[in-house]
Amino acid sequence: MPDLQKRSDGDGSARKPIVQTPTGLPTSSPLIPSPQQRKHWAKQYRTEIAASSSSILSTFAAYPLDSVKTRMQAYRFNHFVDCVQHTFRTEGYKGFWRGCLAPLASVTLVRTVSFSIYQKAKYTYSAAIGQAIGEEPLVTVNRPGSIPTAGTMLCFGAAGATAGGMVAAIACPFELTKLSSQISVLMAKSNTSSVDDPVRSSYQQKGTLSTARNIIMHRGVLGLYSGFGFHLLRDTIGTAIYFTTYESGKQLLVKFQGSNSPTSPLSVATAGGLCGLVSWACIYPIDSAKTHYQRNCLTKAKGQPVKMPRIQFNKAHMYRGLGVSMARSCLINTIFFSSFELIKKKINSLADPVVHDGLQRAEQ
After folding, report:
1. Which pTM value belongs to this model?
2. Quick one: CA torsion of 283, 286, 292, 298, rounded to 10 degrees?
C-alpha cells in the first residue's frame, strides 16, 4: 500500500497527500497520474500508443478503397469506376464506409498487438541469430551505411511471421463481420435459389454486433472463424514480407539519402508505401480465396456444404481488385508508418521522468 502523509508548507496549510507509486514516481492522487508518471508510461508503451493512434487515422482514411476492393473480389464489375458508381447509386456515400466500425476497432487492436509482438520477437530472433553468426542483425541495421543482409532479412521475416500468425485468431472474426457489411447488399441482390435467399437477405443493414450475432445464428460460434485457414496463411506469409520489405527498404533508402537518422521522414513514407505494395502483390490470390470462401459461408446455414476455393496464382480472376488493393495499401501504410515513427520520435524526445525513492526527496 502507498504511504500517505500530509506535510505542512510552513503557513499552517496542509499539503495535498503525496502517493508514492511502485515506480518511484510521486502523484498527488491515486487516480490521477502525475505529469512524470504520464511521461514514464508513454515511454514504456510508446510502440502501443503510436501503433493504435496511427491505425485509427490510416484505417479511416483508406477504408473506401478497402470496401471497393472487397466488392470487386466477391462480385463481377467491369472496372474500378463501375464498382464505385454502383456502390454510390445503390447505397450512397455511407456505402463506402459501411462496416467501418469493426475494422477501426479490430485493426487498431490487431496492429497494436502485432507491433508489440513484432518488437519483442525481433529482439529475441536478433539475439539468437547473433549467437549463431557472431553479430546481431539489429546491430548491423543500426550501423550507418549498412545494407540488408541475409541475417537482417531472416530476423525481420521471422518476427513478422510470428506476429502475423499470433494475431490471426483475433483478426478473423472482425474481418468476417467487415466483409459481411461490405457485400451484404450485393449478396441479397445476387441471383440464387430460394433456399439461400433468407440467409443472404438476413445480413442486410446490420451493425457490427448484429452481424456477429447473425453469423452465430446461422453458422454457430465457430462460424466467426470461417476461412481461418486462409486467414492464417495470408497473415503469416504477408506479415513476414511486410516487415522485411519495410525494414530493408528503409535501411537502403537511408543509405542512399546519406541520412544520419534511421527514421528520416522520406525513407519512412517510401518504405511504408512499398511494403504495402509488395506484400499484397505476393499474397493477393490467398486473400481472394479467403474472400470467396467467406462469402460462400455467409450464404449457407450451418450444416450446408460450402465450396472450398483453390488458391491459384496463375489465374487472372484471382487478381480482381488488385490495383485498388495496392493503391489502398500504399496509402494506408504511408500514412501509418509516417504517423507511427513521428509519434514514437515525439515520445522519445520527452524528458526522462525523475524517479524519486522517498517522500523526503519528492518534496524537495
Report:
1. 0.76
2. -100
Please give the single-letter amino acid code of residue 223.
G
Q: From CA 122, how far away is CA 130, in angstroms rounded?
A: 12
The residue whose grid cell reads 528520416 is 264
Cβ–Cβ < 8 Å for 206, 130: no
Q: Which three cell numbers stand for residue 214?
A: 447473425
The whole-number average pLDDT for the span 251-274 is 88
CA 173 to chain centre: 14
Taking the C-alpha atoms of residue 25 and residue 310, their distance in angstroms, rounded to an integer, is 57
**DSSP single-letter state for residue 20:** E
What is the rounded distance in angstroms from the CA atom of residue 267 to the CA atom of residue 153?
18
Mean pLDDT, residues 77-92 taken together: 87
Between these two residues, 237 and 90, which has the higher pLDDT value?
237
**Residue 359, amino acid:** L
- Mean pLDDT in residue range 57-61: 88
Q: How would DSSP label each residue in 51-99? A: HHHHHHHHHHHHHHHHHHHHHHHHS--SSHHHHHHHHHHHH-GGGGGTT
Helix 80-91 with 46-74: angle, nearest 10 deg? 90
Residue 75, C-alpha cell as written in the block: 462480385
Instruction: Return all residues near 179 (Cβ < 8 A) that are at least 6 apart.
Output: 70, 74, 99, 291, 294, 295, 298
Rg for the chain (alpha carbons), in Å?
A: 25
Question: Is the backbone of residue 278 left (phi > 0), alpha (psi -120 to 50) or beta?
Answer: alpha
Closest Cα partner for 117 from 193, 171, 181? Answer: 171
Which candidate, 218, 224, 227, places its Cα nearest to that of 301? 218
Q: Of 43, 251, 45, 26, which Cα lies nearest the Cα of 138?
A: 251
The pLDDT of 92-110, averaged and rounded, is 79
Q: How far apart are CA 50 and CA 56, in angstroms?
A: 10
End-to-end CA distance of the chain: 23
CA 37 – CA 22 distance, rounded (Å): 11
Locate 235 and state its grid cell: 497473415
Side-chain-facing half-sphere of 144: CA atoms under 13 Å = 5
Please check whether residue 267 is in contact with residue 192, taking contact to mean a CB–CB distance below 8 angstroms. no
Query: Which H or E run contains 6?
Result: none
